[in-house]
Amino acid sequence: MAEMIHLPRSTFERLKMYRKVLEATKKPYISSDEIARFLEINPDLVRKDFSYLKCQGKPRVGYDVEELRKELDDLFGVNNTTNMIIVGANDLARALLSLDFSKAGVKVVAVFDTEKENVGKFIGEFAVRELDVLERVIRRFDAEIAALCVSKDRAQATARFLIEKGIKAVWNFTGVHLDLPEGAIVVDEDLTQSLLTIKHLLKK
Amino acid sequence: MAEMIHLPRSTFERLKMYRKVLEATKKPYISSDEIARFLEINPDLVRKDFSYLKCQGKPRVGYDVEELRKELDDLFGVNNTTNMIIVGANDLARALLSLDFSKAGVKVVAVFDTEKENVGKFIGEFAVRELDVLERVIRRFDAEIAALCVSKDRAQATARFLIEKGIKAVWNFTGVHLDLPEGAIVVDEDLTQSLLTIKHLLKK
DNA sequence: TAGATTGTTAATCGATTAACAATC
DNA sequence: TAGATTGTTAATCGATTAACAATC
């Protein structure tokens, strides 16, 4: 039922942060005020956001950390693992493999490259595969996410190919604005854009 | 003067996207409608955003791409190079070095690590330095940004140390919520949070 | 000229904050 | 009980959209 309620985008963004706060908490209960102070936001807003959840707080006590975390984990679906492929066998691919995404319920199952000469090389524990076998690998592992790490000039074409072959969501590190069919999920991780934010803030 | 006008956060975020659109444009003029279609937003919003800039469009013609880009480059300050250090000599550091941030006016000038045993090793063309010489390096290169790539358990302490020694902005890849002195700039690049967004969208 | 497009003001929509009764 | 904290409604604030005159 909770899923049927519309969750405002701004609330959704904050729910991710609350989850992070809860992870860092050792106490069994936490108040909206504590959460708000930590994130430097208004405690009213925290309570309002939680009103979209099933979870109820206790007056004078606060929210049950464990219960709240469970509901958020459920909302984000971190308890069922989603399989991810990495496309582009380079330093960025290596970096992604070195990070631990198990807390988000994401597991890397294969690494691909568009260049034939890289096929067979190892990136971490993964032998690089060629895109010819993409569809087979997607089906075999039920891979839904692709981290797109290819060069800018290959970004658009590769992304389309991934969606055609069954990938549901592209985690786009290329910095290129992707134009994909209706329904395809794209989440941009544009590092250059972040640097622009920093540069702008530095000027003040 | 334009700097003195308050720029809404939402407008700022879109200005970065407009810049990206302009980069991909070959024509000398572009209309608010073309930009809006590309980004799947309302053209009225594009014009409203541009009203915060000095740049004026021409009825029946659109906006001068070159002129607009110049103003945005100015706003973000990409024409004067800002020096950046990377802290944490690992795969992520290597990945950042492999990317080209010159378009954002950012240049890496040194790589550091908290572990003495990594000092002297090479990450790309950079010999890894120890944090003892941080202050000297910051002064010598006038480094203002630090990309924080250390492990979670060292994140908070290292970030504070960086700010103490003169770093103005922390580009935080650790996923840890940093608590830093008033005035310190933090921009979070939390990959796990992005995956939560993807996982949530996949459930629909 | 007619028509396309800008720039701006007014109307709407959504998100945040204030206020306060309910509760433990 | 008194006081702290929740949950919710109303008020405010800010951002988006609609409307339209100005312009080339």
TrEMBL record, chains A, B:
Upper classification of the organism: Bacteria, Thermotogati, Thermotogota, Thermotogae, Thermotogales
Pfam families named in the record: CoA_binding, Put_DNA-bind_N
GO cellular component: a single term: cytoplasm
TM ranges: none
InterPro entries referenced in this protein's UniProt entry, alphabetically: CoA-bd, NAD(P)-bd_dom_sf, Rex_DNA-bd_C_dom, Tscrpt_rep_Rex, WH-like_DNA-bd_sf, WH_DNA-bd_sf
Location (main, coarse): cytoplasm
Keywords assigned: Cytoplasm, DNA-binding, NAD, Repressor, Transcription, Transcription regulation
Assembly with partners or alone: Homodimer.
Record family assignment: Belongs to the transcriptional regulatory Rex family.
Alphabetical list of SUPFAM superfamilies matching this protein: NAD(P)-binding Rossmann-fold domains, Winged helix' DNA-binding domain
An example molecular function term from Gene Ontology annotations: DNA binding
Domain CoA-binding: residue ranges: 77-177
Subcellular location per the Swiss-Prot or TrEMBL entry: Cytoplasm
GO biological process: negative regulation of DNA-templated transcription; response to redox state
Cross-referenced SMART domains: CoA_binding
Entry protein name: Redox-sensing transcriptional repressor Rex
Function: Modulates transcription in response to changes in cellular NADH/NAD(+) redox state.
Gene, per the UniProt record: rex
